[in-house]
Design the sequence.
């Protein structure tokens, strides 16, 4: 399955507790932190909740 690179680009300050929980679920929490995850429907649902805080791009072979 394809993988995506998720990077947090905005602070979670001022967001709802559910959005902060979503960031923790994604293993984010600080600006600049990034993770590589499998591209699944579950992941798309999580990303919809915090799309204003993160950027998503395809993960390269060397990531």
Sequence:
């Amino acid at each position: 399955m394809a993988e995506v690179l998720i990077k947090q680009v905005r602070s979670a300050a001022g967001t709802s507790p559910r959005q902060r929980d979503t960031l923790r679920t994604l293993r984010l929490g600080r600006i600049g932190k990034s993770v590589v995850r499998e591209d699944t429907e579950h992941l798309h649902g999580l990303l919809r909740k915090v799309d204003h805080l993160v950027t998503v791009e395809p993960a390269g072979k060397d990531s």
The CA atoms of residues 25 and 55 lie 16 Å apart. Helices lie at 17-25, 41-49. Residues 17-25 form the longest helix (9 residues).
